[in-house]
Specification:
This protein is an alpha/beta fold and 207 residues long. It has one domain: DHBP synthase (Alpha-Beta Complex), CATH 3.90.870. It is built from six helices and eleven strands. Helix 1 packs across helix 5. The chain is globular and about 45 Å long.
């Protein structure tokens, strides 16, 4: 049965954050709130946890995963980005955006688009996420908690616990989550931003 941690959405309790990170370090699969929706994630490179996530969401081989990052300091490790695009990223992070960039060899191949070799990068404006990332010290592999057949992501922590109690290792209850996913913007081809999905992140300052 999944463990549930009730973590304050604005002032996360350090002891509980450390407990959550220990689950990640042991290869666990966790559910946590972001600045948009609830998400599900694990350590980068944890094959077993990733396989569980893929089965849970019934994702196909073409699915493009996202790395949840504390800031842009890890960008050069995992992605390739032009100077002009970096200025845009810096101006709009943290925020409700997923940026599609060309991945580097540091990104496990199965996380990237099989042909384009691209990866999503996400810097959330959320205290719980930032606390997790600060304690863990590395990005997390993340995906929206949108279950097969559902139109919207799960947003009620009680529903999440009831539905996923035997399928994930930890659920962080940070209050009700949102229903609108991030805006997805591709910078992969070097020709400026391309809007792939209009979501919670405003688009008026992207161009």
């Amino acid at each position: 049965m999944s463990k549930v941690l009730h973590i304050h959405p604005e002032t996360p309790q350090p002891r509980l954050i450390r407990e959550a990170v220990e689950v990640i370090r042991r290869g666990g699969l966790i559910v946590y709130p972001t600045d948009t929706t609830y998400a599900i994630g694990c350590a980068v490179g944890e094959k077993s946890a990733l396989d569980r996530l893929i089965r849970l969401r019934r994702l196909d081989k073409k699915h493009e995963f996202t790395l949840l990052c504390a800031d842009l300091s890890v960008l050069s490790t995992y992605a390739k980005v032009a100077n002009t695009d970096y200025r845009l990223l810096k101006a709009q992070t943290p925020g409700a955006y997923t940026w599609i960039l060309r991945g580097t060899t540091e990104v496990p191949r199965r996380l990237m688009h099989p042909k384009k070799r691209t990866i999503g990068i996400r810097v959330p404006d959320n205290a719980i996420c930032q606390a997790l990332l600060a304690e863990y010290g590395e990005p997390l592999m993340t995906s929206t908690l949108l279950l097969p057949g559902d139109e919207y992501p799960l947003s009620d922590p009680i529903d999440i616990a009831n539905m996923l109690e035997h399928q994930v290792d930890l659920i962080i209850d940070g209050g009700f989550g949102g229903l609108e996913e991030t805006s997805v913007i591709s910078l992969a081809d070097g020709n400026g931003p391309e809007i792939l999905r209009k979501g919670a992140g405003p688009l008026d300052e992207i161009y």
